[in-house]
Amino acid sequence: MKTIIKALLGLALVAPQVSVTAAAYEADQGRVFTSADNLSVLSYKDRIEPENRMLNTRLTELLPKLMNEAELDMWLVINREYAEDPVYYTLVPQPTFAARRTTMLVFNRLADGSIERLSVNRYPLGEPYESAWAGGELDAQWQALADLIADKNPQRIGINVSRDWPVADGLTHGLQQRLQEVLPAELAQRLVSAEELVVRWVETRTAEEIEVYPQVVSLARAVIAEAFSNRVITPGVTTTEDVAWYIRERFAELQLPVWFMPYVTLQRKDQGCTDEQPFCGQSGKTIQRGDVIHTDVGICYLKLCTDTQELGYVLNFGETDVPAELQAALAVGNQWQDHLTDAFKVGRTGNEVLDATIAKTTAESMITSTYTHPLGFYGHAPGPTIGMWDNQGPTPIRGDWPLYANTAYAIEGNAKVPLDMWDGQNVQIMLEQSALFDGKRVTYLAGRQTQWHVIR
Fold this sequence. Notes:
Layout: H1 2-14, H2 20-23, H3 44-69, E1 74-80, E2 102-109, E3 115-121, E4 130-133, H4 138-152, E5 157-159, H5 173-182, H6 185-188, E6 191-193, H7 195-203, H8 207-227, H9 240-253, E7 263-267, E8 292-297, E9 300-301, E10 304-305, E11 308-314, H10 324-342, H11 350-363, E12 367-370, E13 373-375, E14 407-418, E15 426-437, E16 442-444, E17 453-455
Parallel strand pairs: 1-5, 3-4, 5-6, 11-17
Antiparallel strand pairs: 1-2, 2-3, 7-8, 8-11, 9-10, 12-14, 13-14, 14-15, 15-16
């Protein structure tokens, strides 16, 4: 790795006016944001139409294909208020705030491959669902569901029970018992886990979702750019918590919900950062000149979620640009990203992608850690796990899941690079960018960080 760093650093010293990542390493897809002020955000009211349009497309075009692949004739999503199935909100139109009382969705595959979308509810959902029963008595509701299933006579009935995938385990024990009690024995024997369908439903992005996803990610990256600037940070005064709360409150101002509290850490000389240390940043500190700062943020908009980590540098007195060593270190992080995304191939499991990445980085003596996960309706979505921060070996079950086309990922991990300017201490380049795998290549949805955020 030192050979790589020296080559990058040498070019930086010869041609400082040119970005190190552009001159010494082909770090494509870089994009710089400065502010979210010029990015459109729809009001909650105006989000309803596009969200429901995208839902209708998913139900009409995607669900039939996935039910056919999972060999399910019927899929039941049954849940109650206060205990909603994790997949419920991905299936119902907006505005929907709860599975009122007991809500039953029935997806029945017809001979031509299309899907009947039926509801058995006290409160009918309306489009895109046809009400098969509406009433007020719970026993009658369950009997109506049993009669409906008997009338359709499906051979394989998917229910949301799963040992390994939480998103596919939304049918509570009580509801499962009630379903088995109300069904005739012959039909109860046809109940099977719908986990394959649920994971594929949640991880797959449609063309419409792919079209809008870059805007969602752009908003996340743009707010980070604001936070990692002199608009927010006064060296020697502003704390890491101040910056984290700016990010949180800025998203609230934009009416963008976060799915976790943003956090900000810093690294500096003499702080220590060993090769074995999983994470080197510290929080609860006042930001000073010469610090490397880092943040991790995640938002959801139009039902699509992001997960983003970026880095900034606070210039010392007399500095007019980020030191060449740090520019070279960021380029190493970009190179780790490329080794990872180059390993993406349809059908390859998450564990296999991790193995291929480690083989490349080890051959180049890079000190890296990969912990990449799918994105979509959740920030930590189901699909292939590609390493974990506390396990750089195979991950059972989730790591064995294969890659499919039209799936999104948080390209997450880090590279440690020793700095002469820090007397050989490592700087940890922690990066995470939202990206789409279309089956052939990985494309960053709103570019990726190839240049440092600079605080003067």
